[in-house]
Specification:
Mean pLDDT: 93
Number of helices: 14
Helix content: 40-55%
Largest sheet: 8 strands, mixed
Strand content: 5-15%
Shape: globular
Distance between the termini: 55 Å
CATH topology of the largest domain: Rossmann fold
Order of helices and strands: EHEHEEHEHEHEHEHHHHHHHH
Number of domains: 2
CATH class of the largest domain: Alpha Beta
Length: 340
């Protein structure tokens, strides 16, 4: 029987991770400390077989051994007997996957944890809201923070934040995501935590562009600082709380993605700054850089809220209006002077 949010944590036996990429696999390694069984569900039969038999996921996390209680699968039905379900999927397929799972009559009360960073194009809604639409009788939470999968998988020191208005569920999830190298905090600001994780992707692309253009450390520091102001301004308009953007899912995630070579969005931006096309940059990456499609949805949300977002606008113009990166950066610097 699946554990309810007010039941003892010890009753949690099985976790299911929907998504067999680097982040989903890394989170499975953290959960393996507490759950008797962790099942990673993906689309590739060969990856599922490798996870089960070789205890590796060489495509996304080469040279990282997985715990023996982690197995792979391609069947969504694994979630029906889970005590916790993680959605670690590209934001573009989250709605489709949630609807598919809802057709299997998921038991009420199984907690759902969104670990994807983005908002839906068109509707402008967050991933947890998509899950709540498909599963109105299941508690929903989100996990975010400055968390590169490569470092988590190698058990390097990491902090994260889990957000949900359900305090009992928050405590359970905090315990589930606590390990000697992984420290988790809680928040009741579900909107703010998700928005911080989504918005920072756009600024990471911008930071990469600056690197590709060799504009220097001063420009990078200015970008992160003004990016935080822009993130907070838009995040509040979309329902987040100001203090959340000064925390792990805000400034924390913003810094790591803007400065780290692990960041897919940063790497795409760097390639653009060096003159590559968007198609070539994303193809060479070999994985999804969520900031690319999310720039569209975030730009649309900013226009809907009538919030001034010059950095987001500049990235949008480079990605989707073919504006040269050098020109977009020059226009940012030559904007009319104003108070900070």
């Amino acid at each position: 029987m699946s554990a309810q949010p007010n039941q003892p944590f010890e009753s949690f036996q099985k976790a299911v991770v929907l998504g067999s990429g680097s982040w989903g696999t890394s989170l499975a390694t953290v959960l393996a400390h507490h759950f008797q069984q962790v099942v990673i569900v993906g689309r590739s039969p060969s990856t599922a077989q490798e996870i089960t038999e070789a205890q590796t996921n060489s495509q996304y996390l080469p040279d990282v051994p997985l715990a023996s209680n982690i197995t792979g699968s391609t069947e969504f039905s694994e979630a029906l007997s889970a005590d916790l379900i993680l959605f670690v999927l590209p934001t573009s397929v989250t709605r489709e996957s949630a609807q598919a799972l809802s057709q299997l009559a998921l038991p009420e009360g199984i907690p759902l944890l969104s670990c994807s960073k983005g908002i839906e194009r068109g509707s402008g809604i967050r991933m947890s809201q998509i899950l709540q639409e498909s599963f109105p009788n299941n508690p929903v939470a989100a996990l975010s923070g400055p968390n590169h999968a490569e470092e988590v998988a190698r058990q390097m020191a990491t902090c994260a934040v889990v957000a949900t208005p359900n305090k009992g569920l928050a405590q359970h999830l905090q315990q589930a995501f606590t390990a000697p190298y992984f420290r988790t905090y809680t928040s009741t600001d579900l909107a703010g935590v998700e928005l911080g994780g989504a918005l920072k992707n756009v600024f990471a692309i911008a930071a990469g562009i600056l690197t590709g253009l060799n504009l220097g450390d001063n420009a990078a520091a200015a970008l992160v600082t003004r990016g935080l102001a822009e993130m907070t301004r838009l995040g509040i308009a979309l329902g987040g709380q100001a203090e959340t953007f000064a925390g792990l899912s805000g400034i924390g995630d913003l810094m790591v993605t803007c400065y780290s070579p692990h960041s897919r969005n940063n790497r795409v931006g760097k390639a653009l700054g060096q003159g590559e096309t968007l198609e070539h940059a994303t193809a060479r990456l070999g994985m999804i850089a969520e900031g690319v499609p999310n720039t569209l949805s975030i730009y649309e949300s900013a226009r809907h809220c009538q919030i001034e977002t010059p950095i987001i606008d500049a990235v949008y113009s480079i990605l989707y209006q073919d504006k040269p990166a050098t020109l977009a950066m020059q226009e940012l610097l030559s904007r009319e002077p104003k108070p900070e």
